[in-house]
Design a protein that fits this description.
By secondary structure, the chain is an alpha/beta fold. Helices cover 49% and strands 8% of the residues. A 5-stranded mixed sheet has the order 3-2-1-4-5.
Length: 420
């Protein structure tokens, strides 16, 4: 019986993978609802063109011999024949910043802050990959979208296996999440005094301590379980978050992992700050929220019916809009820097572990955003902004007769009077 070469085995394995992937894509297209068909087809075409197994098969078929680094690779992991040149990588400051989404100085300080974390301490005989390369790879991953953050692309670019890309990501997430209390915290009394002073001088909202809004992170693929729960009003599968930012565009409160089908005000009713306001507010303190929220003592919303409104209310709304621009800008900066938030490269298969990983992904991006705000490195020139367009929705809550709504009417009236 003729001996089968390593190259022939590799080709057979890759052909089998390509055929399997094509069958899965065909099933996905066949089962797509009519209203999603165009989107599914577009994504499926991209998936076929950039299929990692197909690209690798093409590479193997184009050469008579396997690359040296792959000849003894028996566990189907990708081993690059090239060694990643870190010195060359950091030599081009502009390209480096666009890749890791921050300046060299801020990258070095992040490396120093994380290097002693236990996940970067080798426990076996085999040393880990250079932790600076691990961190750069994950920053590249969360800073890219679409094919840019694919595991295969990153494996080829950094000269590691695809399994290592996943491992590096989990390590980095664990290390960064350990910094949560340092970089994501509710304002102290001293900070509140400063925030309120700035807001009062700016627009007359003297007791405003933040701006609240929902942030959507679309999912690249339809969840395999309970998909309708994730379908947003924009007909995209997504996860919802509730965020509160201050006047410096720093996020001071975040709860994430809610189904995309849920309305902002509905999600807010389930978060801790709504259930236990006394932990967060004192005196007459409040947040500003758009018309999707219900007017309460803690959330001051704009007046509705702009075509039948007296001048004082119009002035109030104008100031209110100018304040709320802060959170729109915050989300824009966040998603411009970490573009994976525009479309998380995840498919929800397990309602517990996969959602937890997605929550970690979002939290890590927010923590890094806040860290850069704190260090003063949030304004470097990055690539084009792919952030979502914010669409205002009228809730019509001026006609709301609920008890909580009525409690918010008097504070809003007092603010309007002070702005005259």
């Amino acid at each position: 019986m003729p001996k089968v070469s390593v190259r022939q085995k590799k080709i057979a394995t890759l052909q089998e993978k390509v055929q399997y992937n094509r069958r899965e894509i065909a099933k996905r297209i066949a089962s797509a609802p009519e209203e999603e068909w165009d989107s599914v087809v577009d994504k499926s075409i991209d998936a076929m063109i950039f299929d990692e197994s197909f690209l690798e098969l093409s590479q193997v078929l184009s050469s008579r011999y396997l690359p040296t680094g792959q000849r003894n690779n028996t566990n189907n992991t990708r081993i690059s024949p090239n060694t990643f040149d870190y010195d060359a990588f950091i030599s081009d400051e502009e390209k480096f910043a666009q890749t890791v989404r921050m300046t060299r100085e801020n990258f070095d300080s992040l490396v120093n802050e994380l290097k002693d974390h236990e996940v970067y301490q080798s426990k076996g005989l085999r040393p880990q990959s250079d932790f600076k390369v691990q961190i750069a790879l994950v920053l590249d991953r969360i800073g890219s979208r679409g094919i840019g953050n694919s595991v295969g692309r990153l494996a080829r670019s950094y000269g590691v296996s695809e399994g290592s890309v996943v491992k590096f990501t989990k390590r980095f997430f664990e290390a960064v999440v350990s910094l949560q209390t340092k970089y994501l915290s509710w304002p102290t009394d001293e900070e509140k005094t400063e925030i309120k002073s700035v807001n009062a001088e700016k627009t007359g909202f003297k007791d405003c301590i933040g701006i609240v809004d929902g942030m959507t992170a679309d999912l690249a693929w339809k969840p395999s379980e309970r998909a309708k729960l994730f379908l947003s009003g924009k007909e995209k599968y997504s996860l919802q978050s509730i965020s509160i930012c201050d006047q410096n565009k720093k996020i001071r409160y975040l709860e994430t992992g809610f189904y995309g089908s849920r309305h902002d005000s509905e999600v807010y009713s389930d978060v801790d700050i709504c259930k236990h306001p006394a932990k967060y507010f004192s005196g007459n303190e409040y947040l500003l929220g758009d018309s999707k929220y219900i007017l309460t003592e803690q959330i001051i919303t704009p007046f509705n019916n702009p075509y039948n409104m007296d001048p004082d209310k119009k002035r109030f709304n104008r100031y209110h809009d100018s304040m709320r621009e802060t959170i729109d800008q915050t989300f824009s900066i966040l998603k411009k820097r970490f573009q994976s938030l525009c479309e998380l490269p995840l498919q929800i298969k397990n309602m517990t572990t996969d959602i937890t990983f997605a929550q970690q992904w979002i939290l890590v991006c927010v923590l890094l955003h806040n860290r850069l705000i704190t260090l003063g490195g949030a304004d470097i020139d990055l690539e084009e902004n792919n952030s979502e367009q914010v669409v205002e929705e009228e809730s019509g809550d001026d006609d709301n007769d609920s008890e909580t709504h009525q409690l918010g009417v008097a504070p809003r009236h007092q603010i309007r009077c002070r702005q005259k």
